[in-house]
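Section 3.1: Structural characterization of target chains.
Under the original work plan, the team committed to producing a structural model for every single-chain target entering the pipeline before any wet-lab resources were allocated. The record below documents one such target. The sequence was received from the expression subgroup and is listed exactly as submitted; it comprises 283 residues.
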Amino acid sequence: MNLELLRTFLAVAEGKSFTAATQKRFMTQSTVSHQIKRLEESLGQVLFVRTTRSCKLTDHGEILFTYARKIINLCDELDDKFSEKPLQGHVSLAAPEDYLSLPFSKILARFTRIQPDVELDIRVGLSETFRAQVTSGEIDLAVLAQIPPTGEGQPLYRDKLVWLASEDFHLGTHKSVPLALVPSPCLYRKTAIAALDKQNMPWQLALNCHSHEAIKSAVISGLAVTVLTEKDLRPGMKVLTQKDGFPDLGESELSLHHAPHLSNEAALLLSQQLLEHGTLLKN
């Protein structure tokens, strides 16, 4: 039985809602729903009765809950018992702000639990800034966005680039496209401006800000449009497509990069865990 599906099942059951599970599992609600559906199909039983405000375990769900909790507890205990030898030292890891969030924290928390004597130095910034630093060996590891995908580094996952706007945004009410962007050398900024210029679409900079969270707030409020990935879609936003007059943007790839000739055992172990659990970062 798939342990990740069991973990999602427990998160829904314990939180009594799919929304609560998204926060605990660091997934989108659609991913949680899909995983529960897969589990129900594999067992041939309905596990939850859903209402508009909460969800309740069925009789079969109650049975699974008892066993799932025991299974997950034993697996976590076994994983810790047979984890890698204790290490010491220092690991520097860099990543863009919009990726170094809850899913990343989950992976890092597991690493520090297994390796409590390793000091983590987490740096947040732009991919283009960290690219030179990891190449020079100034930092051990860097998670970098690549637009378009180049195949460099070790791939973690790909995501579709999208135009995000408030739910009531209509291009026809604007003389030019109002943009909310991170300053150069942000890849999203470069991609957005190049795509609009290629289609001769006039644009203006409504917000120039280093914080992706502030940009998302500006989008939801209706102040501006931005370019991010599908995983960044939030309630109050919509995706603008070619039907709305906006050009297709292609994909972004997230990849892991090492300093040349990296021999730091702790950094290599963290790298391994990031690669093993890289798909979590997309949720």
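The longest helix spans residues 59-81.
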